Amino acid sequence: MTSAPLSTTAQARVDSWTWAVRLFKTRSAAAAACRSGHVRVNGVPVKPAHSLKPGDEIRVRVNGLERIVIVEQLITKRVGAAVAVQCMIDKSPPPPDPQVIALQPRRDRGAGRPTKRERRETDKLHRLPGTQARG
Predict the structure, then answer these.
(1) What residues contact 132, with CB distance under 8 A and at least 6 apart?
(2) What does the alpha-carbon distance between residue 125 and residue 132 come to, in Å, rounded to a whole number?
(3) CA 24 – CA 44 distance, rounded (Å)
(4) How many other C-beta atoms lie within 10 A of the C-beta of residue 34?
(5) Strands (E), the chain
(6) What are the Cα distances from residue 99, in Å, to 45, 53, 92, 96?
(7) pTM for this model (two decimals)
(8) Residues contacting residue 25 through CB under 8 Å, at least 6 positions apart
(9) pLDDT tens digit string along 16-58?
């Protein structure tokens, strides 16, 4: 006798689903991310109450990293990590190398706006090789 641990439904809200598959720690954090435009469904920013269907592509910006997942199964109850993996297909790019992150310039919290010189130095680091600076 096996019981299905998933509570499948005909529809699910985007904030509820992203919380249920553990993309966010709390449902209110998922809703806040939707309201601030950090959650996109099929390339369109959505509100927390947007209904999902299987096959939708969800792009979520969490802690500066983008997660890309495809909805496989709709759930509304939070499930274990092993079960949550079965409800989505993760197409996220690999996280950047820690050495690359360490080389990126960081400003101290509360240091204020960057000066013109600091901004130019930052732009120079982010510029692609072979491109020219704006005049």
Answers:
(1) none
(2) 13
(3) 19
(4) 24
(5) 12-13, 39-41, 44-45, 51-52, 57-62, 65-71, 88-90
(6) 32, 39, 20, 8
(7) 0.69
(8) none
(9) 999 999 999 999 999 999 999 999 999 999 999 999 999 999 9
